[in-house]
Every structure is written in C-alpha cells, then in structure tokens.
Amino acid sequence: MSTRLSAPRTGSAAPDGAAGPFRPGSSSPAGRQPATPHTLPADSDERTRDRVLNAVLEHGPVSAAELGDLLGFTPAAVRRHLDHLSRSGVIEVKRVAKAGAGAGRPARRYVLSTQGQSTLGDDYLDIAGLALQRLGEIAGPDAVREFAVERFSDMERRYAPEIEAAGPDITARAQALSAALSRDGFVASAASIEAKVPLPAALSSVQLCQGHCPIQQLATKFPVFCDVETEVFSRLVGVDVRRLSTLARGGHVCTTHIPTGRPAKGPAGSGHTTDSLGEVSNHLQERP
User: Fold this and answer.
1) What residues does 110 pair with on adjacent strands?
2) What is the pLDDT of residue 63?
3) How many domains does the chain divide into?
4) What share of the chain has pLDDT > 70, as a percent?
C-alpha cells in the first residue's frame, strides 16, 4: 500500500509588473523576450512539499528543525512548506513538553491531521463497517472479535519468523516488528527509552509508533481491532505491552509501550496471552 501523499495544488498569479505571455499582434517592449509560464518552480515546490509531508507522516510528532536536518532544507524553507500544508489541513501542530526540560512552553511538533490520515485511502471501509455492525447485531460482539482475531492471525503468522530471527533481545524484536509493520504500510518506528539513574534499568522500554492505520475508520467504531492487534504485538515480542494511544481514539499516532527490562516469555506466535488484557484495552484511551 502506498503512503505517498500529494499536497493540494494551488495556482499562482504573476508578480505585479511581470509581463504576460506574448500574443500575436501585440506589441512588446524593445529587448524584452516573450514571457513563458513558470511551471518548473511550481512542480519543484510540489515535489518538495510531498517530501515534507511524507517526513511528517513517518517521523511525527516532529519539529521544523528536525525536518530540516532530515531533509537538508533551511528552517525558512521547511516552515514555508509546513505553513502551506497546515493551511491545506493535512498537517497540524501538536504542543509537546520536552523531556527533562521542566516547566516551560511546550515545543511545536507537526503531525498528520485527521484529514491527512483520511487521504491515505479507506476504500470499502464504509461497507465493511456496515457489515461488521450487522454481524454484531445478528451474532453478537463475540463474532466481531472472532473476525478481528482471524484478520490479525495472518499478520502474526507472517511476522513470527522475522521476530524469532531477531533473537531473545526485546529491543531487537521490537525493531523487527517495526520493520515488518512499515513494510505493510503502517509507517512504524521503534524508539528506545533507557531508564537513567536513579530509576532502575528494568524501567527501560521501546515505544513502537505507527503513523498510519489502514483500518482506522473501522477501529474507531470497533475498538476490538486495536485490542486484538495489541495482543498480537505482545505475543510477538514476548512481553506484556501497553497501548498508550491510538489513531482510532484520537491520537496522532498509535503508540505501544514495550518494556525491555524483562526476559521474553516464549517464541513469537506461540499463542500465549497477556497477563492482564485490561492493560491493553483501548476503550478508556483519550487524545494525548
């Protein structure tokens, strides 16, 4: 599934005082060549804007300075494109407090907006939502859960060999899971968070983020999809995990907390369940 987005095209008027295209029968000032449409700069801006947008999708929440470093642009150039994308409604600003910075003004971070997420494509999700609603009415909520389990079982079977190949280290397994998710279009990343003294090393973790959810619309109506996916992640990495936020519940990304200071439980895909499914339920999640 492609995750490339194109920012909306906007026309540009000729600058004040600029000559228009030369027409037969009209006079032209001496020495002035007929003007030609300036299409190349506009196309170049479009391509650059696509790069900025895709970087926000992959790395968000991300600052303008971080985007400049990632893409090799000046801060002024990045902000110009960010302003355009913000006006178009496909990205928005999220205020994030800097870790360890104490009191102070939160930093500006850019993320994909709900509109931006929806432009990634949700073909047939309306029909699927109606079908699942009808299934629940006829066969009960357990039938919807069984459907979600069956859907994610294929993911678990495909990912399990890759996770096992990463070895017993939880961080390595989480990174392997992130790579597999990205390949399937979830735009995932895995960031290690090391506990610093005086905190015990057992509190170290990996935050697994997913910038895109192909079934976000369905998961909004049926949170059981998020619950089942989280249970699959727990089995794959081999430790109990906790969902911190989901796109379906209003978050800017799906974030899964994976503790790394404890040994893995067993082989990926072995079918063990988490100790407490209440820890991975999304029903009480709120927008971060």
Assistant:
1) 62, 93
2) 85
3) 2
4) 66
Torsions phi, psi for 175 (to 5 deg): -65, -35
Residues 215 and 98 in one domain: no
Name residues whose C-beta falls within 8 Å of residue 213's C-beta, 6 or more positions apart in sequence.
117, 186, 219, 246, 247, 248, 254
Tell me the per-residue pLDDT of 6-26, one tens digit each, with 9 for 90 and over.
444 444 444 444 444 434 334
CATH value at residue 238: 3.30.1380
Q: What token pair was written down for 165?
A: 């190949």
Place of tokens 């089942």: 228
Dist CA 142 CA 82 (whole Å): 44
Report which of 163, 210, 219, 218 is spatially closest to residue 191, judged by C-alpha positions: 210
The C-alpha atoms of residue 57 and residue 49 are separated, in whole angstroms, by 12
Percent helix, strand and coil across the chain, each to the nearest 5: 45, 15, 40
Encoding tokens for residue 3? 């995750």
Bridge partners, 94 (sequence order): 109
Is residue 16 included in any domain, yes or no?
no
Alpha helices in 140-265 (DSSP H): 141-165, 170-183, 216-221, 224-237
Segment 114-133 shows an average pLDDT of: 65
3-state DSSP assignment of residue 201: helix
* Structure tokens that stand for 154 in this block: 């294929």
Return d(Cα 234, Cα 6) in angstroms, integer: 35
Going by C-alpha positions, the residue among 182, 274, 186, 287 that lies closest to residue 244 is 287
The reported pTM is: 0.55
Residue 222 contacts residue 144 (beta carbons within 8 Å): yes
Q: Strand ranges (DSSP E) for 30-149?
A: 91-96, 107-112
